[in-house]
């Protein structure tokens, strides 16, 4: 028989005297998260290498500190790097639908914007004075007089031609001339002209037609003179405007001569101002005096604006941007529209940046799950990373959902690192199903879930606790409280020699402990405050657990923890609901009879058993045949069932338990009902480790204490699970009193001996077991079933032969 485990093996306590501080506010806070050295190294590699596709995917469970670690690392890295370039969008005077993108060094874009704005305001003030000067008006009068004189000459020549053609001419305006014939020295009316007959009338008509052609030629010359005069007026306006603005624009051109693109824009702006100088000459008071003019003409200076897309402080760090809502527009940018005369219009001033613009030259951090949930966002991100430029495109325009006036902003070159944060299964899915993913995210930072409980790590973990306490303005912790936090952390990862690196759970525990400490008017968080947190959490979540325990106590759920029974055993199971796990024993029964070597899993037959559970049951048939009936047919039919189970069952942790029930049924030796079992088994009868061992043991312990706190109980677990034990205090106290025992086994033989009180027995060289051993009884029963099956088969064969003989004539 195996000895039960000692209480020291069931809980790995943390000695508070190991810490030299009186409270955590005395220790230096941790500079970086503990246990994540590999992840930090991966982040350093991804941010240092300047090659295409070396973006980063930071993966790990939710709450493991991925976000805070990544952001802290990137901000520290960015502080040593150059400030990113700033970007502006300006009007493209050649094609208004294709705005131009201009880059600046940090702090220079706002200066350029202010320079342009001040220049336009200055032009508004000075240009009217140039056009109101006496020189301007004198020059304009000379031009006007020159063309009036030429026009007068044309009309004088026309009057001379009128006399030659006996026509009286009247000039109503420079563009309209009327004339009538002269008879006997007097102009005649239309009625008088009708009374004239014969050759005289034909002669008058001929002269009128000739003169009409002369008038048309003259008026055409007058029209050409008017056009020429207007051209000269405009040329004069352009000349005056150029003289007025050139010196001021030259200063600006010289200031930005280092950038051909900026000087090109300034030149285009100068030409546009010269051609639209009238906008600068309209005074607001004049517009107000004539309200209807505003409906037809409103000067617009928006085309000279500078859309400051991205700007930074001078000599600041490289940008680190986290986009919490990565919809397409927030990622790529957007072009806004306004309603005008019943339609939607836009211009370059309505271009808004996306997260990629804001992070250009630095780092963009995205939540992988949120990114994948947004339509078009993930594909847009990949397209941008592959093309190395950000092109703002409207989804509605791409898919022809609406028809509006739109623009095509010039793409902006992209130079940044993208970091996706997500859980491991997202990384594996993307890597498997998306061939482009591995090309664009070549570096993986895998965050550890746990780390060894070494002396060095204990000190670092205490520093981490101190850092979180200061970061969240919590009370400092005593050494005893720190030790209890470490013990609970080991419980969370179900490993006595490790503790969790899950920062969110740790921070939540400290915040709740701070609440209880302040409620009790303490100055420091003590061990009792940590215990209060754990107890209050359990009370908030254990309603269903208590209801099930109540059903066991009432006998509704039939769990027997006393006496012994053949083919009946208590299995340790665990239930997880809403992040809370608890153990509950389940009754497994086995029945055996003559058959063809089939073990019927009733759970599988009714489709309540999962594939892993079914696999565990199939192993039992292989074990029985190879261990006990290697030289004879396995003439056995057995059935296994989880009694009072009404839901899905999955996992193989009860396969050893089911095997113990089968051996009991075959040998007809009863199993002690005060001992429950967990553990999976392989084909060689070796016991394999399982999960949830602490919850399983504590669940059976609670049921036993409800039944009879003074009786003796025990559990059997795999030896490989001993290192996972972190049992609660009540179990440890019962173990020390001898009321409760925990046995760790490595084989089926060890377990069946504990359960029945009878040695399993070892086979000799001939394969025979000791006569009084349990294995010998199992072999004897299998031989008996085989012989019975053989006799039955022989009898049936003879009966069939007799029937055939009776049929013969």
Short description:
The chain has 809 residues and is an alpha/beta fold. The strands form 10 sheets. A 7-stranded mixed sheet has the order 23-24-22-21-26-29-30, with helices on both faces. Strands 8-13-16-1-17 form a 5-stranded parallel sheet. The chain has a 3-stranded antiparallel sheet with strand order 3-2-7, with helices on one face.
Descriptive tags:
elongated; 7-stranded mixed sheet; alpha/beta; single chain; 809 residues
Structure, explained:
It is built from 29 helices and 30 strands. The strands form 10 sheets. A 7-stranded mixed beta sheet has the order 23-24-22-21-26-29-30, with helices on both faces. Strands 8-13-16-1-17 form a 5-stranded parallel beta sheet. It has a 3-stranded antiparallel beta sheet with strand order 3-2-7, covered by helices on one side. The protein is elongated, with a radius of gyration of 48 Å. The mean pLDDT is 87.
What is the end-to-end distance?
69 Å
Query: What ranges have pLDDT less than 50 throughout 5 or more consecutive residues?
Result: none
Task: Give the strand order, joined by hyphens, for the main sheet.
Answer: 23-24-22-21-26-29-30
Helix percent reads 40-55%
What structural category do the secondary elements indicate?
alpha/beta
- Percent of residues in beta strands? 15-25%
Count of DSSP-assigned helices: 29
| Gross geometry | elongated
Question: Could you give a short account of the major beta sheet?
Answer: 7 strands, mixed
């Amino acid at each position: 028989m195996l000895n039960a485990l000692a209480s020291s093996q069931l809980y790995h306590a943390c000695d508070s005297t190991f810490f030299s501080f009186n409270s955590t506010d005395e220790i230096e806070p941790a500079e970086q998260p503990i246990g994540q050295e590999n992840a930090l190294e991966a982040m350093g590699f991804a941010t240092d290498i300047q090659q295409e596709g070396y973006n980063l995917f930071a993966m790990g469970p939710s709450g493991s500190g991925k976000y805070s670690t990544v952001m802290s690392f990137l901000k520290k890295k960015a502080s040593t790097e150059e400030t990113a370039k700033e970007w502006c969008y300006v009007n493209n005077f050649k094609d208004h639908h294709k705005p131009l993108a201009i880059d600046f060094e940090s702090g220079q874009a706002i200066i350029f914007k202010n320079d342009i704005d001040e220049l336009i305001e200055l032009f508004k003030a000075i240009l009217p004075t140039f056009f109101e000067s006496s020189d301007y008006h004198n020059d304009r009068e000379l031009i006007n007089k020159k063309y009036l004189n030429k026009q007068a000459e044309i009309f004088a020549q026309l009057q001379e031609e009128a006399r030659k053609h006996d026509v009286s001419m009247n000039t109503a305006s420079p563009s309209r001339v009327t004339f009538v014939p002269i008879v006997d020295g007097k102009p005649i009316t239309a009625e008088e002209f009708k009374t004239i007959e014969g050759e005289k009338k034909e002669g008058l008509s001929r002269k009128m037609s000739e003169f009409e052609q002369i008038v048309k030629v003259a008026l055409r010359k007058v029209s050409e003179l008017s056009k020429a005069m207007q051209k000269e007026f405009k040329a004069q306006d352009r000349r005056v405007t150029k003289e007025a603005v050139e010196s001021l624009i030259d200063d600006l051109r010289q200031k930005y001569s280092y950038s051909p693109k900026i000087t090109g824009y300034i030149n285009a702006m100068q030409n546009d101002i010269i051609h639209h100088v009238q906008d600068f000459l309209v005074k607001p008071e004049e517009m107000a005096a004539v309200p209807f003019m505003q409906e037809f003409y409103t000067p617009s200076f928006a085309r000279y604006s500078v859309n400051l897309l991205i700007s930074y402080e001078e000599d600041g760090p490289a940008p680190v941007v986290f986009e919490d809502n990565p919809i397409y527009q927030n990622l790529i940018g957007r072009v806004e529209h306004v309603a005008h005369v019943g339609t939607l219009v836009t211009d370059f001033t309505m271009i808004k940046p996306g997260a990629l613009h804001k992070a250009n030259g630095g780092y963009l951090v995205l939540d992988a799950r949120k990114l994948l949930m947004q339509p078009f966002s993930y594909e847009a991100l990949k397209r941008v990373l592959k093309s190395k430029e950000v092109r703002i495109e409207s989804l509605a325009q791409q898919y022809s959902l609406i028809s509006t006036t739109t623009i095509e902003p010039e793409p902006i070159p992209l130079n940044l690192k993208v970091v996706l944060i997500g859980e491991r299964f997202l990384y594996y899915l993307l890597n498997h199903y998306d061939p482009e993913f591995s090309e664009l995210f070549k570096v993986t930072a895998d965050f550890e879930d746990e780390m060894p409980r070494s002396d060095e790590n204990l000190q670092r973990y205490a520093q981490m606790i101190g850092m979180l306490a200061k970061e969240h303005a919590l009370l400092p912790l005593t050494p005893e409280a720190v030790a209890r936090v470490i013990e609970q952390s080991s419980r969370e990862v179900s490993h006595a020699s490790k503790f969790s690196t899950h920062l969110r759970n740790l921070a939540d525990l400290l915040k709740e402990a701070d609440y209880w400490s302040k409620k009790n008017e303490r100055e420091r968080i003590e061990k009792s405050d940590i215990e209060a947190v754990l107890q209050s959490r359990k009370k908030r979540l254990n309603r269903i657990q208590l209801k099930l325990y109540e059903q066991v106590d009432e006998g509704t759920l039939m769990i027997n923890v006393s006496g012994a029974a053949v083919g009946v055993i208590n299995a340790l199971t665990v239930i997880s609901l809403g992040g809370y796990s608890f153990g509950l024993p389940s009754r497994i029964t086995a029945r055996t009879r003559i058959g063809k070597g089939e073990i019927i899993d009733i759970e599988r037959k009714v489709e309540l058993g999962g594939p892993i559970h079914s696999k565990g049951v199939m192993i039992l048939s292989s074990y029985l045949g190879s261990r006990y009936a290697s030289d004879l047919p396995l003439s056995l039919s057995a059935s296994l069932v989880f009694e009072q189970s009404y839901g899905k069952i999955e996992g193989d942790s009860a396969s050893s338990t089911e095997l113990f029930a089968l051996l009991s049924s075959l040998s007809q030796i009863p199993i002690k009902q005060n001992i429950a079992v967990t553990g999976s088994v392989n084909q060689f009868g070796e016991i394999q480790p399982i999960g949830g061992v602490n919850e399983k043991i504590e669940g059976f312990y609670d049921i036993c204490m409800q039944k009879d706190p003074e009786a003796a109980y025990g559990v059997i677990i795999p030896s490989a699970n001993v290192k996972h034990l972190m049992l609660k205090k009540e179990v440890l106290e019962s173990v020390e009193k001898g009321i409760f025992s925990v046995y760790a086994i490595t084989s089926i033989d060890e377990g069946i001996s504990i359960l029945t009180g009878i040695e399993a027995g070892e086979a000799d060289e001939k394969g025979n077991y000791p006569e009084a051993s349990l294995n010998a009884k199992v072999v004897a029963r299998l031989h008996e079933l085989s012989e019975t099956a053989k006799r039955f088969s022989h009898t049936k064969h003879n009966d069939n032969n007799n029937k055939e003989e009776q049929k013969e004539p």
